Amino acid sequence: MARTQVKRHGWIGRLFFTDLLAGLRLTLGYMFGKTITHHYPDYEKWIPYQRHRGHHFMNTNDQGEVNCVACELCSKICPCDCITVIPFETEKGDRRPKVFDIDLARCLYCGLCEDACPADAIKLGQEYEVATTNRATLVVHLEDLIAAPRKATNGGKVLPARLDPEGGLRSVTRLGTEAVGQDWWSRIRKGK
Ligand code: SF4
Ligand code: SF4
């Protein structure tokens, strides 16, 4: 039955170009809809969805120790060879990273390190503002990764950015906070 419906829909669709008309309707809707300008980076900042692969962070356990067991799997699988892991053994006999560096200038944010990690340690978050004029600062260390923003729960929202409406500076809303913002996509659809 379902197959018949699909066939009939396909036949009707081919005869009356319904797919083409649906596509044109959507395109024309955007062409003649209200233009939306995203005032980034001054007034608005878009938070990507959780599936976004941005700046890495390192998970820690309840005792504040990094989850990383310095197995170096992430370093081995990284196609850009941009992860440096040097292990050491703690007094308790645990294997931990003495050095854990990622060169973000070489990283292509593929997420393979996250996929390979057996300890739920290295993750890619939604932070994307890593531009700099000093390439050396793009090498992030273990302490940077521990302090980096976790997964933001408000993905898809637009938050106030660094300037207030009068042009004054304000503290930037960090990703992962629960600040209430506008929903970017619903705003586009409704043309607000
Ligand atoms: S995201 Fe990809 S390129 Fe970047 S550090 Fe991880 S494995 Fe390497
Ligand atoms: S982050 Fe994960 S994969 Fe990389 S060294 Fe640590 S435990 Fe191994």
In short:
The protein is 27% helix and 17% strand.
Number of strands: 8
Report on the biggest sheet: 3 strands, antiparallel
Number of helices: 6
Output the CATH topology of the largest domain: Alpha-Beta Plaits
Going across the biggest sheet, name each strand in turn: 1-7-8
Structural class, by secondary structure, is alpha+beta
Question: Please, could you describe this protein's structure?
Answer:
The chain has 192 residues and is of the alpha+beta class. The protein has 3 domains: 1-33, no CATH class; 37-50 and 152-192, no CATH class; 56-142, 2-Layer Sandwich (Alpha-Beta Plaits). The chain is built from 6 helices and 8 strands. The strands form 3 sheets. The protein has a 3-stranded antiparallel sheet with strand order 1-7-8. A 3-stranded antiparallel sheet has the order 3-4-6. The protein is extended and about 70 Å long. One iron/sulfur cluster is lined by residues 78-80, 82-83, 102, 107-113. Residues 68-74, 85, 116-117, 119, 121-122 line the site of one iron/sulfur cluster.
